[in-house]
Amino acid sequence: MVRTFEELVAEAESVSVDGWDFSWLDGRATEERPSWGYSRLVAERMAQASAALDVETGGGEVLAGVPRLAPLTVATESWPPNVALATERLRPRGVAVVATGDERRLPFGDGAFDLVTSRHPVTTWWEEISRVLQPGGTYFSQQVGPRTAIEVTEFFMGPQPVGSGRDPERARAVAEAAGLEVRDLRLESLRMVFHDIGAVIYFLRKVIWIVPGFTVDHYRTELKALHDRIQADGPFLAHTTRFLIEARKPA
Predict the structure, then answer these.
(1) Which ranges carry the Methyltransferase type domain (predicted)?
(2) Across 199-216, average pLDDT
(3) CB 123 within 8 A of CB 112
(4) Which terminus has fewer CB within 10 Å in the chain: N or C?
């Protein structure tokens, strides 16, 4: 049965967007995954670490899937609903979840960790990463790359300026300026396909930087136009970019 625009909107507005689990989109949207397999690589590094920190852990989804955590593993998260989810998920594994604010400082001492990880951080505080790493320690992160989902952004907000603060070469330069040695840096462009307007709404409610300030009421005209386009022409295609960066603090 084909559902109406209003039915799809009502459903997508009612579902929770807490945490960093996108399983609600199963069958409604797809996104290619980077070839390197971030979770597997984190697990390999975590098994060798003695003290690890996961920055911006979301709902703790990545750490929860790591078979063997470091003997001391800590996570930080700033969004209160995610703090609660991550705590519930990670406490049974002995992981402390520390609630943080917007201040540009990690609440840990110098050289506290030999491994710092982060998947899709909003902002990477490179000087802080360097400070809390032990000499010889590693920062390992998968990050959102330049012009991610630009097709979605421009559909709702019009043409956007060329260039991005999420350029991987800029990340390299800032990491090196903070005293880290970049050991690995890779970038991939990946397909993202939306099969209905409900999937688009859910995505924009959850990934809030794609269309800043998004609400259904504000963008109802554009949403209806995109719904009609999907109905007439098929799924809406966009592209994401991801980059992997591994940096080491000199011994």
Answers:
(1) 53-140
(2) 96
(3) no
(4) N
- Measured CA to CA in angstroms, residue 125 lies from 20, 106, 107, 128, 235 at distances of 21, 9, 13, 5, 37
Rounded to whole angstroms, the Cα distance separating 234 from 195 reads: 7
Q: Residue with structure tokens 């703090």?
A: 83
Helices and strands of the chain, counted as H and E runs: 9, 8
pLDDT tens for 182-198 read 999 999 999 999 999 99
Domains and CATH numbers, the chain: 5-248 (3.40.50.150)
**DSSP state at residue 120:** S
CA distance linking residue 216 with residue 219, whole number of Å: 5
Residues 63 and 234: beta-carbon distance below 8 Å: no
Task: Give pLDDT tens digits for 30-80.
Answer: 999 999 999 999 999 999 999 999 999 999 999 999 999 999 999 999 989
Q: Which two tokens stand for residue 40?
A: 């597997």
Q: CA-CA distance, 110 to 169, in Å (whole number)?
A: 27
What's the rounded Cα separation, in Å, for the pair 122 and 62? 16
Instruction: Report the SS3 class of residue 100.
Output: coil
Distances (CA, A) of 145 to 132, 138, 167: 25, 21, 6
Beta strand ranges found along 112-161 (DSSP E) = 113-119, 133-144
Single-letter residue type at 62: V
Backbone angles phi, psi at 222, to 5 degrees: -65, -40
